[in-house]
Here is the input.
Amino acid sequence: MTRRVLTAVVLAIALVAPTSTAVASPPDSSDGLTVVSTSVIDARQTEYTVSTSALTRPVRIRVVMPTGHDAGSSKRYPVLYLYHGTSGRPSDWIGAGDALATTAGKDVILVLPEAGYDGDGGGFFNDEWNGGKRGGSKWETFEYDQVIPWIDHNFPTIADRDHRAIAGLSQGGYGAMHGAALHPDRFTSVATFSGAPEIYRDPVVRTGASLIIEAITVGLNGKAPFTILGDPVTNGVHWQGHDPGTLVENLRGMDISLWTATGVPGSLDTLEGGYGGISGNVIEALTHGSTLAFAAHLRSAGIPRRLDNYVFGTHTFPYWAQDLREYLPILMNRFAHPSTPSAITYSSTARAYSQWNWGVAVHRDATERLTTLKDASSTGFAFTGDKATVVTPPSYAPGATKTVRIKQLLKTSTTTVRVDSAGRITVAVPGTSEVRIS
Here is the structure.
């Protein structure tokens, strides 16, 4: 193991390690975000315009505080990050989604980040691929790596996994499940409302998702085809790395709720609303297929999920407002009774990552590939993929010695390692293998 690799892993762990929070008033510029302006809407709502090097233009974050919150109080609250859909804005959930009334009287902070530029098609919650050059708009970086710590540093949150949830409608439903699958150590609950939680694993869903994403990219954002994720045929591994359907094992131990309908007009559709309209009918049918495929993959993996598959319903706000009303009691119960998996499995196409305090640095060439850390606990783990350096959580007595057995095919090697001062063990993994620690 090189000093560079070990440094990368330790830094990755440090980036997601829990930190103490402080309440700033007004919110300061931190975590990569600069506050450009502040608009107080009412006693509960404030909207902040922020700029960041991750995006090409300033965007808005609306924060809704609990009813009767006292700025001078030391009380802290759990947080729900709630995303809008394609061509939407943070205010959609307030005006059409009845979110103020739904959260009234609930001890929860509601955070509504913008996921596009002034109502364009949105960036599908990904850092743009751009033919492998990257750059451009980095929505994944903004939504998950900047907004969340900025909120924790500036508002009275309970800044841990047990008190943080993520949800959204349509494209925002994909964004919620995408964030949960990439960062399962940050969220205890995830919900999608007419969402697209799967975009690649099922070949039929893949075709529909590709058409929708490219229509958004070209037709609404005015960008070249395949800007966001690349070509799903030639760049399939990158799609896999951002497809919750491929990454279902990452979600084990999380509370998962899915709402979906067929696109056939139902009881909440009206003549004035055009009974959902053609787009509301067709898009709901597409997200319905994505949701059912995703639910089936969860079921096959033995991962519990809550599925509300109502026959009649369109891709419109009356249904999403109803879904949110149904989700809130489920969410508040989860906050009161959180759960953490005893062993973790995590798949990724990243070269280096940290999850659940495990650090992994993969030694490979420039080609993206999926690797998996499986059933990881203090007694060992399995690893699938290229050679890698794995750093365990601080689970052992500093300075102690441990026996590490690595089995690769028919070959088994045994070494004695010393636990570092932080209580961690560093293991050089030769590729796909099983590792036992005793």
About this structure: The chain has nine helices and 19 strands. The longest strand covers residues 255-264. Residues 1-24 have pLDDT under 50 and may be disordered. The radius of gyration is 22 Å.
